[in-house]
């Protein structure tokens, strides 16, 4: 169990869960990092780095408490579980096998760190992508649309010249894609995430809320889509601030 390198002050020992925390789903996102031998990343360095990081994100080293009616985190510096795993195969072979079977220990909702050490054979060729494996999964085709800075700036100037709207680049692109997809032949709704970190400087993690913008079937210009999304974001933030 790795604990914060500096004990958490007594006045930070209890962190009450917010309205957003109570709504958040109890999901656990496992991430595995592979390090080549040339990086020389040692276990000691990883452990020290994690211990130093936990001093800033001390709630992650605590435990949930339900002693009272109000849920909270007891920031007791109990620590996070650090697991080292050794696999007797070269890295290229491990990457092939990892796609077919689960070679990692079972993960639960406890904070965990897994450090994997595998032998590396001389002359091993490391793939720049996952190796090809026969699979029955359907073929997935994706497309990427690139909006360069000049095109976005010109589009933004067009919107600002025709109204008093001052959209962000994200709102502008969302509005453009929405307008192109629905055209003007039917009613439509746009579901998107709103970043609420600006409402609380002490928030830990990603604080988001869904916003839903509705558009009736009619021939509208781009600035109407932009205004609708902007109003939805503003109304959602105001409503959340009243909770």
From TrEMBL:
Record's keyword annotation contains Lipid biosynthesis: no
| A Pfam cross-reference name | Transferase
| Record Gene3D superfamilies | Chloramphenicol acetyltransferase-like domain
Asked whether the UniProt record includes Acyltransferase among its keywords, one would answer yes
| Alphabetical UniProt keywords | Acyltransferase, Transferase
Family membership: Belongs to the plant acyltransferase family.
What's the protein name? Anthocyanin acyltransferase
């Amino acid at each position: 169990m790795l604990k914060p390198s500096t004990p958490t002050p007594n006045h930070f020992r209890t962190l009450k869960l917010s309205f957003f925390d109570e709504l958040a789903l109890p999901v656990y996102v496992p991430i595995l990092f592979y390090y080549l031998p040339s990086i020389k990343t040692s276990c000691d360095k990883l452990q020290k780095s994690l211990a130093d990081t936990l001093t800033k994100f001390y709630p992650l080293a605590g435990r949930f408490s339900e002693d009272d009616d109000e849920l909270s985190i007891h920031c007791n510096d109990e620590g996070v579980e650090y697991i080292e795993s050794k696999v007797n195969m070269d890295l290229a072979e491990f990457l092939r096998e990892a796609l077919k079977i689960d070679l990692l220990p079972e993960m639960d909702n406890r904070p965990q760190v897994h450090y994997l050490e595998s032998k590396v054979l001389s002359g091993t060729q490391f793939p720049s992508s996952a190796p090809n494996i026969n699979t029955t999964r359907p073929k997935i085709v994706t497309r990427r649309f690139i909006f360069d800075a000049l095109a976005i700036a010109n589009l933004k100037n067009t919107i600002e010249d025709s109204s008093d709207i001052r959209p962000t680049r994200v709102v502008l692109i969302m509005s453009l894609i929405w307008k192109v997809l629905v055209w003007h032949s039917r009613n439509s709704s746009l579901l998107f995430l709103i970043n609420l970190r600006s409402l609380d400087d002490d928030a830990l993690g990603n604080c988001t809320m869904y916003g839903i913008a509705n558009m009736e079937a009619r021939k509208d210009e781009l600035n109407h889509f932009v205004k609708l999304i902007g109003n939805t974001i503003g109304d959602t933030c105001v409503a959340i601030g009243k909770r």
